Amino acid sequence: MSTAFNDGSKHEDIAKMIVLASHNVLERPIDVLLLRLCRSYQELSLYATMKLHTADRIQDGEAEFKNFGELLKEYIEKAKRIPGLDEKKFDFPKIHAHKHMFDDIRRKGVSRNFGTKIDEALHGSIRNTYQRQTNFKDVAPQILRSDHRTMVGKFIRDQIDDLDEIRRNECETPDEEAENETPRDVAEKVDNVALGSRLPAITFDRLEQEMETDTAFSRFRLKFSTFFASFLHVYEGRNRVNLKATDEIVPYRFLKIFLPVSR
Question: What is the pLDDT of residues 58-85, one digit of tens each?
């Protein structure tokens, strides 16, 4: 378990371990009750910080909050009769925050939408710079200089990656391009349908000969003529289109459908 006790999460990290680390040391009934209270607090915190909530989870969280309140009330009543604990106060912000937590989640979504904890990780690089690259005096210019160097290095790295990608695309073979499913040029585009990887025109007779091992192309010209006739409306006085073996067709090996996006 990787734990750092030099930031604002130290109390949270300690609270996660205290029940397991001290359950066989604290034996007085009041101490056991305190450990039960700590465990309930951790479970309540787990429900409150979930990244995805359902109605059942919110109900479970509210039930745990009720359990936490009962344990807290019991602990306060018993602590009043014990010297050294009778002056302990439990009226602090995080206790009060849980009272409205699940109502806020219903109105605003998960707690990361209206909390500040999600931003804490953004300061990791600045903290590392402060600890490793400053003399702990007048640190702002030193951190700014290091951050500038980091951004310049990242910009150069991105440019190199882009150049490598361009060179790979230039060296890509037609077979590799077909595997990637996205040809560099789209030969035809009608509405939300795009055709690519165009091949030279070929007669139906030649196509059936080249694809004779593929059962899908057996009697392909006749099947295509039937489809063509049923697909196109036959106007009065016009004859049905009959394709000949010498007629040419243009094959495409790429088809892409652009589905409409609802907004």
Answer: 999 999 999 998 999 998 888 888 887 7
Helix H or strand E segment including 249:
strand 248-249
3-state secondary structure of 235: coil
Query: Where exactly are the structural domains of the chain?
Result: 10-115, 181-257
What is the DSSP code (8-state) at residue 170?
H
Instruction: Give the residue among 17, 36, 20 at the shortest CA–CA distance from 28.
Output: 36
Residue type, 128: N
**pLDDT tens, position by position, 186-243:** 567 777 788 888 889 999 999 999 998 988 888 899 888 888 777 766 555 566 778 8
Task: State the burial class of residue 111 (Cβ atoms within 10 Å of its Cβ: 0-12, 13-18, 19+).
Answer: buried
pTM as predicted: 0.43
3-class DSSP state of 194: strand
